[in-house]
Amino acid sequence: MVVSPANRANISARYFDDLVSRVALPALSRYALGDGTDRTGAISPPGLRWLLMTKIRMSQTDRVGPFALLLDSRLFLKQSNAICAEDEEAFLDVACRTILAAHDARWIVEFLVEGQRFFTPWSQQLDAYKKRLEAEEWADKSPEPQEFYGALQIASTLGDWPTMESLIKGGVRADRVHPLFGSAARVAISLDHLHIVQGLVRCGHDPNAQICLIGNRNLLLYAGELGRRDMMEFLLTLPEIQTSTKHEATEETALFWAAGRGWTEAVRLLLSNPGTEPGPAALDVAVKEGHEDIVRLLVARDDLKPNFGVRRRCSLWLAVQHDRDWAVKLLLDRYAVNPNMEIRGGETMLALAAKLGHESVVRVLLQRDDINPNHQAQGERKTALQYAATENHLGVVEALLESPRLDVKATHDGVFALEIAVYKRHVKCARLILGRMNKADKDLEGALMLAVRRGSVSLVRLFHEDAQIRSCLPYAFSLALFQAALEGATDMVGEIIKYDEIDPNRTYATCFSRKDTALFAAVHRGHVDAARLVLSHPRLDINHTGFNGTVLGLLADRGDQRLMKDVLRNANLDVNIRAPGYQDNIIVYRQDPDEPHGKFTDDFDMRFTWDDTPLLRAARKGFFISVRILLEDPRTDVCATSSDQRTALWWAVYWNRESIVRRLLEADNRAVNMRDVEGWTPLHLAVNLSRSESMLRLLLEQQHVDPNITTEAGWTALHLAMLCCTTKAVEALLDHPGIDTSVRLGDGRTLSEVHAPGGCDCKSLVQSRNLE
């Protein structure tokens, strides 16, 4: 069989239509439907109309279902001349508009576009329709074909009242709800055809009849739902109209819609009808939308019982939520409500208004004598002032502070309003609250410290600019300086340090020490810029001694030369102050008594304390850059010793820093003969640690050097050199003119006897010079 190009095109188009129907339309229909919350009218978004037209075109060959009925309606109405349409496309467009006007968007998507479900009340008519199709005699046997094929509803869409009137007189029921095209009245209300609604009522349409197969809605309720004001006012003139009909799902009434849309005249007509029940929902929506005239009409009714419960959005909650100060005043006066009661969310009206920043509502509530501005409701347990401070509502804060009954110190979890404003960095709000507080209140110290921790110079300035606060809370400002220095907040330190009331010498406990000043805190943390600012204070005690000694000693001990020069420029500085010290292990050198030829090895002794001068601290740690800086100052005592009697020269030899040894000897060579607690001089140490020959000769070249000094155990430097078999050291010592080789140890041993058997040339060197 040969397929013509035209048929091939038709088959391809049909396949594409089927693919779109099964794959694309479900997703597109949901997009067109939106979120399903639009209740302003039955006409769906424009995309839904396109979907419906596309589905109709794809169903041209369907013989069962709603689209087959629609297509046959087109054929019947065209043949019977019941409806005038220019062409087939024009009729389909009118039919789609009718369906869109007669049903909700969700119904159209679920039953027509997607076809997920089938409408049950339609099943019997569909069965009859299928039987007529099979017998092909349906047209002659149908008693009311115009009614069956929706002629009245399509005419309503076109706004053609003469045609509708003719159909009604011909036997078509005016109030019939068609399964596909809905009711003519609903279509007319949807499309805002007032004359159609008026004509239907004149022709006997019951205005109280249901116009939907699903949902309890009559003409009046549906007109209010779609916002048809003229239709509602017309229907309210009918004596038989029922005004109490409620939507079966939402229980909304015509009064609810009229009140929510601000139709004052319609509300007045509804309230004049004895069948109207003014429920709380109408009052709620009128308050929410801000229709004052309608609210006053409703509250004037004695049969209106508002619900002020805490589990729903009551009128008072809505009035506060939407900033209706007039509604708050009206409702409180009319119903004698306790203004301190908790409404929805466990908050009072004042707390909610303060939280939302509604200043006018706050002022209305504060005018009442029975309001409690300090009430803390369940839940968050915040006061109105705390809510306002949290959200930075300046107008509300100002209004609350004007109340003489306000407690600015009311706390929530131990925090009061000023601390909340400081934590949030709300500078203007904090200024307002601070102006109301007692300047001598100790709790201001906590707020000031919080401002420092939050790093806000502007907030700290609020406290510092007040001379009364500075005079009443000097401790707080010194603590603030300490905290800012500890955190390295340079701008903060600069702000605090410029006031004379600040004491930079106050001490506080830190993880570094039990008594640290702001300068020590900055140095411990390495905040150079902050430390320099503290150094500039005229009342700073540069010689303050803490657990770590002076600040110069701390810098020397840390090897931090960046600040040492700044500290040394201070004319009041005592360069040689010792640290208080603490007991710790000190290195000592001892010989094993069981090994007469054993070398002296290092050991530890707990007899001593770290009570060094800055120079000794730097030398002991091996920070010789710091040593050089200190040696540049003429006030430095080069020969200073600590409790172990060791000098900086002793430690320079220990760390094998020949250049520093030379600098120290140039400054003061008296230390070359100074003995430590074990009797060791730098020369003993250099020999025992096998230091270089150049360092040994440097020590021996000093004018006052004594190479024969003995240790507590009786050892000279030459004895140690023989013991250690250090030939170069022995040779250098023997070359010194003041050497005494006849010195014996305490046990009587000579140099040769000290020397271990075998090995080196030390013993032969001594013998060759015939010195023993």
TrEMBL record:
Protein keywords: ANK repeat, Repeat
ANK repeat positions: 678-701
Keyword Membrane: no
One Pfam family recorded for the sequence: Ank_2
Protein name according to UniProt: Uncharacterized protein
Organism: Clonostachys solani
